[in-house]
Structure formats: C-alpha cells, structure tokens
Amino acid sequence: MKHDIGNGRIVDVLPDIKTKRKLIADVTASLKHSEDPFFLVDLGDIIIKYHTWKELFPRVHPFYAVKCNTDHTVIKLLADLGASFDCASKIEIKTILNLGVSPSRIIYANPCKQESFIRYAAKHNVNTMPFDNEAELCKIKQFFPEARLVLRILPPGNFKVQVRVGDKFGCDPKNAANLLTKAKELGLNVVGICFHIGSGVEKAEAYASAVEHAYYVFELGREMGFKFELLDVGGGFPGVENTTLTFREIADVLNTALDKYFPEGAGVKIIAEPGRYFVASAFTLAVNVIAKRMAPQDKPDCDDGQEMLASPNSEPGYMYYVNDGLFGSFGNLLFDHDTVQPRVVRDCVDETMFTSTIWGPTCCGVDLIVEDYRLPELHVGDWLFFENMGAYSVCLSTSFNGMPHPWCYLHCTEQSWYHLYSVQK
Ligand SMILES: Cc1ncc(COP(=O)(O)O)c(C=O)c1O
User: Fold this and answer.
1) What pLDDT is stored for residue 308 in this prediction?
2) Domain 70-274: which topology?
3) Which residues line ligand 1 (CB under 6 A)?
C-alpha cells in the first residue's frame, strides 16, 4: 500500500519485513533502465528506535539533533512521534517551526551563535540556548535577555571518543564560577547545564563522569542563587548494532548516574540531543557500478621512481567506479571517521573473491570509498549497497562535479506505520 505523506513523498507500507537485499533487488527491477543511486529509508527503524529510547530512558526526553540528517520525512516522523529538536542555526529552527512544532520543543543548541540568528530565535520564542563564553553572554544580553541559558561544560577529558567536540566547545568546570558571575552581573537567566561527550565513546562511564561534573556545577549555580532546573546530556549515542559499546550499556550506566545525582522528584528536567542514534541504521545506500578496470599490478613508487607490486601476492584485483562517493553521500567517511562495507545485491554465493577497490564518480583522486576489500567479480550495471548510512551522510553531500544526489525509496512495515498513524489520523 502506498501512502502519500505530502511534500511529494510516498511511503511504501509493506505487509511483511523483507531483507534489504530483496527490497533493493525489487526496487532496481522496477526502475527498468535507471541506474541512479538511491537510499532505502526504513521509517519503521526510526519508529522502533524512538520506542526503544522511551523504554530505556524513561526520564530523558530526546531533542533530535537536526544537523545529523535533515530529511523532511525523518524530521516530520520524529515530530509526530513526540520528539523535540536540537537546532544549530536559523534555517534549522525555521525548518522545525514550519512543521508546526512548538518553540518549547526546540533547543538552539549552538554555544556560538550569529547575532541575527539570536534575534530570529527571540522573535520566534525559541528561548533555550547554551553558552560557554563571556562574549556569548554579552550578545544574548543585547538580543535576547529573557533567554533561558544553559552552561555548556567540557566533557571529562580522560575517555577516548571517535569524534571529539571538547576542543571546540565547552567551558572547563573550574571556570564555571567566573561565567556564572558574569551572567549574574548581566541579570541573565541561567537554568541549567549541558555537555556533549563526543561521539563513538568507548566507555559508558564517560557519561556518568560528565553527569557527576554537571552535578557539582549545579550545586555551585544554586549556591549563587540561580534556579537550575535543566540538565542536557547531549548526544553521541550509537545508532548501529555491533558497536563495542551498546546503547543499552550506555543507558544502564547513564540512568544510574542520573538517579544518583539528579534523582526523580528533585525538580530537574533531563533532556538529550541524540542525532545518529535515530537515523544511522534507517538509511541504506544503493549504488550502481558505472565503470570497471583491472587494478594496476605495478604502482609507481612516489619516493624513488622505482616500480613496486600493488599487492604482495600479485593476485589480480579490480577497481570499480560507482555513482555516489566522498563528495556525495559518503561524506561520513571524511567528517565522521566512519568506515563502510560494500555488499553485492545479486546472489553471488560461492563465487571467487578478488581484492577490490571502490571509487566514487568524480574526477577527484581522493574520491575513494573502500580499498582492498574482498568481493566477487562485479560488472558494469551491478548494484552494491552500504548499510548504516543515515548519519552525517545526506546532510554533508555536495554537488561537486555535477553529481546528482540519491533519491529516496521510503518504506515501513504495516505494523509500525499503523501503530503510529492510525492513532493520529
Ligand atoms: C551539541 C551537539 N549535540 C548533539 C550532537 C549529535 O551527536 P550524535 O549524532 O553523535 O548523537 C552533536 C554532534 O556534533 C552536537 O554537537
């Protein structure tokens, strides 16, 4: 059954769960001669993620980090599910307000804001926003003195993360007193503390430790006469399976810390800013092999001009060129330090495997997706797919070299779709 959800978007509501491989095979067969790349977007996956969040974090309200994936259907779905939103710019705020979402469901979660954006937030009553420096306080005093401010503190530095943010944002908790004194002088309303520990953290204790730091700054703020009532635990929650640290493990550790330092009934609202958690696994990218070459057996050695073997055992290898790449949907490889695994759509059980390299479609030499990966021999016209492509992918894509963006095939199981929409419509 097809559902028109407006904005030119159609959702294929399917009676049964199909494997991604089967779905892509069905879609590509129905396309006839089109070879354009596309995303398979499983809206049911996002619905399940939302319910899992509510189950594992009953006290933590999610503000979806819009930057992570701004697809209209995704944000509309999350709005319908009841999520709130973390916006970082005027355009993101506008996009969410245009969905009819109340400004109270938005946090303008950028600690360093452009003046005109602050004015826009003030005009539209988006009043909760972080700060981590004095200049920001002065701007806010000038353009939005009634704002509800949240002091962003640095995450503890002793935990390894894949994507660090502490170099750019966050005040050292040791300097919190100075900033709070300045806020007091300016007569500003500071209502709580936030942090973002970064993404891809290896130990859940990083969250617990950040909560403990936040607690001490809370105590300080209250002693200084502020009415603190908000704790924002940021983002970084994994959105795919098979991570070293699972979402459930983080929930266990974080909930324990919250119950210890910010127990229920203590008058503190707890929110988070998950991005990748909601969208990463919902998007699967299908790309077409548009060209193929044998990998060169000999590569010139850059240092001394001597020739050297491409692979130690001289096994023949292939290079494939597909129609999306680093400047398109694979920006996550560059900016999010991700890695991807190509999968072949057609059945290739028992076929001989070869060392393969996959390049993007542009003329740029850095447009490399995967190197030295074992694949069966592919042919021009074959389809490959890459799972877990929903986070920091679509939103980073450029039109470099005039390459088109993938279109989206939206799908959902009947069970998930009607669970949400039969109640509402
Ligand atoms: C302030 C803030 N909140 C939330 C997020 C979302 O992080 P993630 O997608 O890892 O959950 C980010 C990402 O950079 C961020 O900077």
Assistant:
1) 39
2) TIM Barrel (3.20.20)
3) 65, 68, 86, 109, 165, 196, 199, 234-237, 273-277, 391
